[in-house]
Amino acid sequence: MDLVSTPLLPQGLKVPASRNEDPSKRLRRLLASKPYVFGPGVYDPMGAELVMYHGFDAVYFSGYSFAIGHLGTTDMDLYSSVEIADGARRTVSALRKFQLTMATGDPEKEVPPVHLEIPPVVVDMDAGYGNLFNVQRTVELYVRAGVAAAHLEDQVMPKRCGHIAGKALISADEFVGKLKMMRAAADDLGHPDFVIIARTDGVSASEAPESKRGIELAIDRGLRYLDSGVPDLLWCEFPTAERGPTEKFCAEIRKRFPKARFAFNYSSSFKWHNEKNPITWDDLGELGVGFIFITLALQHAAGHGMSVLLRDLKHDQEEGYMALQRKEWAAGADIPTRSHHLFTGVPYHQHVGQEYGATRLSHQMDEHLEVSKVV
Known about the structure:
This protein is α/β, with parallel strands linked by helices. It has helices spanning 23-33, 45-53, 63-71, 81-104, 132-145, 172-188, 214-227, 243-256, 281-287, 297-316, 318-328, 340-344, 346-356, and strands spanning 3-4, 15-16, 37-42, 59-61, 121-124, 149-153, 195-200, 233-236, 262-265, 289-294. β3, α2 (45-53) and β4 (59-61) form a beta-alpha-beta unit. The protein is globular. The model has no long low-confidence stretch (mean pLDDT 92).
């Protein structure tokens, strides 16, 4: 890993050189060099920071997760483009700051620097939040936020989660127009590497202008979208975890487009653990899938973890919280949030505060308490 200096760190501290790489170019490089790129689904900056800490290639900023995490509701177009774009902006900004805080470590407690690559952020764009001019505005918001890629789906508005019944599709021609606007808007902003993912809900749509339905409609739509020359990746949303439809879709598309690459939602809506022969990520890579993601990965993990803690607090009072701390601080545990001060960058702020002469921001404000007593 090549390391470079940055004016945002004191002399002698460095960050990975990829900090200065355009996120879309980084994503394209990863797609070109790996069998597939995987991105866990997040809904907030903290989740994205954890994805970065554990070394994943990408972050997937899920619309459904965003709806749950920020509105406490479902994925049925109940938020606007400005809201999710701001969530994505804050997430990208947090990752850049997190790289600095980890590269500082904690000199006072002899915690060495950790050098982390910033994963490119792929963001849900639903059906574009309106017509093609809404698409234009959203792409501008995403590009200026530092987003590496976005996906657009061919549903009517208000859209539905891909695994909720009653989906209807706009015409293929209208959708191609939206895709073309995505490309034009990104190019106009000087970002020709912005990655565009075209999604079709044709397999399970109940309403569409065409007479075809099911997998045949999805294949026909996928081919038409690739004919436009716009999508970098093609995503078909499937209603079940069966491997057959996925294999058929990829094979049929590649008959006309042998080098086509796909995106695949290893959806949280399916009970993968109950599948007799679940499709693996390596299988998907062989089919041409370049980007794999789990939409609600961190939302489910957070729900599980918080429910366990709350149950223990309810039943065991203070012992419930101490049980959590024992797990966090167990020998060999790698839980970066166990010290919320280190995770959020208190040492970084104190160190840089001293460099810049900021009042009440320096290591001199450290209370030097016994390490075993505080985080």
